[in-house]
Amino acid sequence: MAGLKSLAKDTAIYGASSIIGKFLNYLLVPIYTISLPASSGGYGVITNMYAIVALLLVLLTFGMETGFFRFANKGDDDPGRVYSVSLLMVGGISIAFLVLCLLFLDPIANLFGYGEYPWYLGMMLIVIAMDAIQAIPFAYLRYKKRPIKFAGLKLLFIFISIALNILYFVVLKGTDVGAAFLINLICSFVVMLGLIPEFREFRYCLDRPLMKRMMRYSFPILILGIAGILNQVADKIIFPFVYPDKVEASVQLGIYGATSKIAMIMAMFTQAFRFAYEPFVFGKSKEKDNRQVYAQAMKFFIIFTLLAFLAVMFYLDILRYVIGRDYWEGLRVVPIVMIAEMFMGVYFNLSFWYKLTDETKWGAYFSLVACSIVILMNIFLIPIYGYMACAWAGFTGYAVAMLLSYVVGQKKYPIAYDLRGIGLYVGLAALLYVVGEWTPIEHLGLRMAFRTALLLLFVVYIMKNDLPLRHIPYINRMIKKK
């Protein structure tokens, strides 16, 4: 019981810090898009740069975080030795990568279109190296069950970042995109200082057999990680290379990046659901057959995401103000990107079957198929359709991965999902969305009231069919008292 309480507490801290962190980081969107007009292409540079950062971080950590946990908990190796070897490998590769890139900074900057501002890329390369190195001490904090320091450093980064961005872009009215990268560099350095006690526990040990075993274990995770991150950022990396007008590419990418952030509200909702529901799902793992639990989890996940979808779309007339007005033309991507996020969430829930059967190779197959679709659609369609191709590529890639996982999963590990019930929810949500979007109401207040009524109709349907009020503990006690 004590172990479960500890797990619940740690999960709450990690979950809350992650969700709060994402929400606070979301505040940078209005700061950047209001301070940097769409025509400047500044936000397009930020979007492109952070996509490159995300991909390089996966490459430089090469699955070693997971490898560290696996070997530190295995019992065959000293955890301190595993930590030191992990840090030595990631740190060595990251520093070598940084030195090599800085030596050839100008040609690399020219390759990515930053020939006039090579230190935009230079600063972010330093950030990438620091963040990759920090990944191992952060994993060590989780291993040592120190969630408060872990969450504290993560939130410290975000608070300092927001404060400095507000100071430069809002108070001082600055417009240099490079300031955003300099601020990130400062914040990463502060976190590095906070991890000094963990770095002091490093002991140099060149354990080649352990290194080889850890590399063999981590390599498949690296492949999965590359495929997964490319599904999310390939469009933002490819866009400047294939869009016909190189100058206009930053403008269009900025519009797409900013409006996509509104759709990322779905990611925060789904993550909140996962933190709340996963402990319940895995708490049932000792039961003889928990397939019914997985089926219920899937249904509630879809209900939750459909509710989030309707909420965002119905109040988009208000949510649009989180980005600058000249970015609004890109709001048409929001429903597409949100549905793509839903597909990704369903795909995540479906992943239980190949994890439970130890056939994780299927996850690699599905991710690689999705990744290939996303990359090819972006390469061939961006020159014709611009950023709309990015939205539809993500939609298609995740849809295919989701369907493949379902079809193969039903053969390998059949689960009786409530397809009829799920279909009714999807149909009702689609109907309410169409009614809300196509009913012409000019007055904003009346339009919001009408859409709120539609949203409440969906909530009532949920309450009536799958979440009766009497099943909610507090309300159930009130009913019994009466």
Could you tell me how far the N terminus lies from the C terminus, measured between alpha carbons in angstroms? 34 Å
Can you write the helix and strand succession as a string?
HHHHHHHHHHHHHHHHHHHHHH
Structural class: mainly alpha
Largest sheet: none
Key structural traits:
globular; cell membrane; 2 domains; 22 helices; mainly alpha; 482 residues; membrane
Summarize the structure.
With 482 residues, the chain is an all-alpha fold.
Plain-language structure description:
Residues about 470-475 have low confidence and may be disordered. This protein is mainly α and about 475 residues long. It folds into 2 domains: about 1-240, no CATH class; about 250-480, no CATH class. Helix content is about 80%, strand content about 0%. The protein starts with a helix and ends with a helix. Helix 3 (about 40-60) crosses helix 7 (about 120-145). It is globular.
Strand and helix layout:
Blueprint: H1 2-26, H2 28-35, H3 42-61, H4 64-74, H5 79-103, H6 105-111, H7 118-143, H8 147-171, H9 178-194, H10 196-200, H11 208-242, H12 246-263, H13 265-283, H14 291-314, H15 316-319, H16 334-350, H17 352-356, H18 361-385, H19 387-412, H20 419-438, H21 444-465, H22 473-481
Helix pairs in contact: 1-8, 1-13, 2-8, 3-7, 3-11, 3-12, 4-5, 4-7, 4-11, 5-7, 6-7, 7-9, 8-9, 11-12, 11-18, 11-19, 12-16, 13-14, 13-16, 14-16, 14-20, 14-21, 16-19, 18-19, 20-21
